[in-house]
Amino acid sequence: MIPIAKPIIGEDEINAVIEVLRSGNIAEGQKVKDFEEAFAKYSGTSFAVAVNSGTAALHVALLAHGIGAGDEVITTPFTFVATSNSVLFTGAKPVFADIREDTFTIDPESIIEKITPKTKAIIPVHLYGQAADMKAIMEIAEDKDLIVIEDACQAHGATFEGKSVGSFGDGTFSFYPTKNMTTGEGGIITTNDLEIAQKARMIRSHGSKQRYFHEMLGFNLRMTDIAASIGITQLGKIADFNRSRIKNAHYLTGSLGNIKGLILPHVDKRCGHVFHQYTVRIRGDGSRDDVVSSLNKMDIGTGIYYPLPIHKQPYYQELGYNDSLPVSESASKEVISLPVHPSVNISDLETISASLRDIIG
Q1: Minimal CA–CA distance to 184: which of 35, 33, 1, 344?
Q2: Which CATH architecture is the domain 239-360 placed in?
Q3: Quick one: 242 exposed, middle or buried, by C-beta within 10 A (0-12, 13-18, 19+)?
Q4: pLDDT digits (tens, 9 = 90+) for 189-237
Q5: For the chain, which residues make up each domain, given as ranges?
Q6: Which of 42, 259, 249, 41 is nearest to 130 (CA)?
């Protein structure tokens, strides 16, 4: 089987973890601080605050900005449910804007249509490793005095007009095993705002700056030194990981052209796409589910990210969401992601390409 995703854990990561275990300092400690400093530098921001998941990063970032009951936060329904759930955690309301047809990222024109007097923030998602249109989004935010919290959980190392994602507004990243880099589980918030960084650190640690003195309501969302040691090692490799993903994606794009009913990934020329996923669309006579079934029978792993937009999820239906978001709804019926992670080799790529051509070519 050629898997759709595969974390790359080598001797460097194993030895880093062993070092931490032998030190006896396995909870949040110096390794976490070192990882935060390294990731802030990598993302081009002044501060980074490590937490125990990407979901926690989103939740904490929202709380650090004071978002809560009565507020609305505009985001996309075509993403993992954690993006909007994090808004619900605060007591605020997620409001869904539709996506662009070409990049699957949030459509700035749809954002404008969704703004109300209750709107406090925008969460653009840099989906599949490609940045949303941050020029347009930041112009909207500045004009309407809105907070921007970037969901960059799939976009480590991605850029927009040469600038790193996570550095336009405040950024949130995930280090789940399938991401472009991992800490096992983990997340991080990036910001240039000292006050937001300080609040985030308090929220992740029971609302305290000093142990046993609690100034606000907080949680236990800390990262361990074990996870941070993996993150430090992976951060030293991510440039190579991303180059492999980009190279593999370019191979597939070059070999899958001119197949009727197959729409290949669009790369916005302003973006540095890092291909967390290589996502195609199946249109015309071919059934997406039939193609997935056929590829899986050929031992080619696939992913459908995402088969049901958030506003159509059962829980959100119970909450009363009945939006019509046709681009998101259409994409959810057509997308398939193909393997391009760094463990995919040229033989795998040839197999993927030939198999897909046999099925729908």
Answers
A1: 35
A2: Alpha-Beta Complex (3.90)
A3: buried
A4: 999 999 999 999 999 999 999 899 999 999 999 999 999 999 999 999 9
A5: 11-235, 239-360
A6: 249
What predicted TM-score, i.e. pTM, was given to this entire model?
Answer: 0.97
Query: Band of the pLDDT at 286, cuts 50, 70, 90?
Result: low
- Report CA torsion sign: 289, 290, 294, 297: positive
Locus of tokens 């070059």: 254
- The answer to whether the CB of 72 falls within 8 A of the CB of 298 is no
Contact by Cβ (8 Å): 181, 175: yes
- Write down the mean pLDDT value for the chain: 97
Q: pLDDT band at 260, cuts 50/70/90?
A: confident
> Which residues does 60 contact at the CB level (< 8 Å), separation at least 6?
49, 51, 189, 200, 203, 204, 219, 221
* Cβ-based neighbour number of residue 312 at 10 Å: 17
Does the domain made of 11-235 have the CATH classification 3.40.50.11290?
no
Please give the DSSP secondary-structure letter assigned to residue 215.
-
CB distance 277 to 126 below 8 Å? no
How far apart, in whole angstroms, are the C-alpha atoms of residue 216 and residue 201?
Answer: 11
